[in-house]
Amino acid sequence: MNVLQRTLAVQVPCLKDSWLYRILPSVSHKPFESIDQGHVTHNWDEVGPDPNQLRWKPFEIPKPSQKKVDFVSGLHTLCGAGDIRSNNGLAVHIFLCNTSMENRCFYNSDGDFLIVPQKGKLLIYTEFGKMLVQPNEICVIQRGMRFSIDVFEETRGYILEVYGVHFELPDLGPIGANGLANPRDFLIPVAWYEDRQVPGGYTVINKYQGKLFAAKQLVSPFNVVAWHGNYTPYKYNLENFMVINSVAFDHADPSIFTVLTAKSVRPGVAIADFVIFPPRWGVADKTFRPPYYHRNCMSEFMGLIRGHYEAKQGGFLPGGGSLHSAMTPHGPDADCFEKASKAKLAPERIADGTMAFMFESSLNLAVTKWGLKTSNCLDENYYKCWEPLKSHFTPNSRKPAEFN
Ligand SMILES: [Fe+2]
């Protein structure tokens, strides 16, 4: 079912291509025709910009008794930025589905999908073979690759789409050769094919310049008997991430938690980073250990796969999300601040049973109408989690030092 091999594809900064040996070429199909867009969009001007901290309750999955929704019809664009036609930008989508794709596949002409299942596993048929991707694993399906997804229950997850650039491992700098996401832990499918006629027609759905199109053909597209190359889909289990952290005092920048990055042309500034906050030890002395309060130049979309994120005691739930935009202040809620301020700084486990993640971008993200209104999941009371914060400033509590 889940036959995979290891890949070096994510670490090789060179030309990426693959040769596919198929029973019939992909070109044997009827013309593509425009289809209903559903909630997929790249219109970043649907509603005006909003600099507020935004948080969403868990996005609701439709019940199969109400409406059968597969992975493609269950795509909802939440936010994004940039331009598809000039291959520069990103989108964050939420998928909410309850049914397998039946004689339907999808491919994206606009960019790569990094898929983060949160509820329910995905059996993904690709032209390169099959991958079973479960919550706490991620997969990347790159531009142009056709895939079809089987689901087994009401299923939810997040997608980071990047235009015109591919994900790669971050430069490790002084860390050296080993650490963070190691290349040995990325898996790719082995070739698998079906020689299957579909008399009623197999539907190939294409996202092209942000719009959806469909074409019929008479055979399954998963007719690749053999392939070779380094342009492939791949998956990664987040449990394999080797965490690096402060072991003395103070905070390291969250970039130490980067799994994959999609670089921009500006050094050190990514179109998007995929960052996780895995279970680990907290040992820093003389340090307020939760994430510090900050404002910064990045847009930070966060999601929660399972558990409880260390900086929020409640309200940030698995299957929900939050967005903190450029220079918008954010940080731990008031409960977290009080507890962490009084905590004894012994070594302690952090985030056991939890996996939070962040899609972080140097671009300014616009939120869609679905995100702000139609989803009906926006938490209007988010700002209140910081309202109880009070001053602890006591200027006379310490004698000033006479000498430095
Ligand atoms: Fe932040």
Tags for this model:
binds fe (ii) ion; 2 domains; 404 residues; six-stranded antiparallel β-sheet; single chain; mainly beta; nine-stranded antiparallel β-sheet; Jelly Rolls; globular
Q: What is the beta-strand fraction?
A: 35-45%
Q: What's the shape?
A: globular
Strand order of the largest sheet: 1-14-18-11-8-13-6-5-26
Structure ligands = fe (ii) ion
**Low-pLDDT segments:** none
Number of structurally distinct domains? 2
The name of the CATH topology of the largest domain is: Jelly Rolls
CATH H-level superfamily of the largest domain: Jelly Rolls
| Helical coverage, percent range | under 10%
CATH classification, class level of the largest domain: Mainly Beta
| Number of helical segments with 4 or more residues | 2
What is the succession of H and E elements?
Answer: EEEEEEEEEEEEEEEEEEEEEEEHEEEH
Instruction: Please tell me how large the radius of gyration is.
Output: 22 Å
The largest sheet is: 9 strands, antiparallel
What does it look like?
This protein has a nine-stranded antiparallel sheet. A six-stranded antiparallel sheet has the order 4-23-22-25-20-19, with no helix packed on it. It has helices at residues 334-342, 369-374, and strands at residues 4-6, 18-22, 33-34, 54-56, 75-83, 88-97, 104-108, 111-119, 122-126, 129-133, 137-141, 147-151, 155-163, 186-189, 197-208, 211-219, 224-229, 234-237, 258-263, 270-277, 280-282, 299-306, 321-324, 348-350, 355-361, 366-367. The protein folds into two domains: 32-238, Jelly Rolls (Sandwich); 242-385, Jelly Rolls. The chain is mostly beta strands and 404 residues long. The structure holds fe (ii) ion (FE2). The site of fe (ii) ion has 4 residues, from loops.
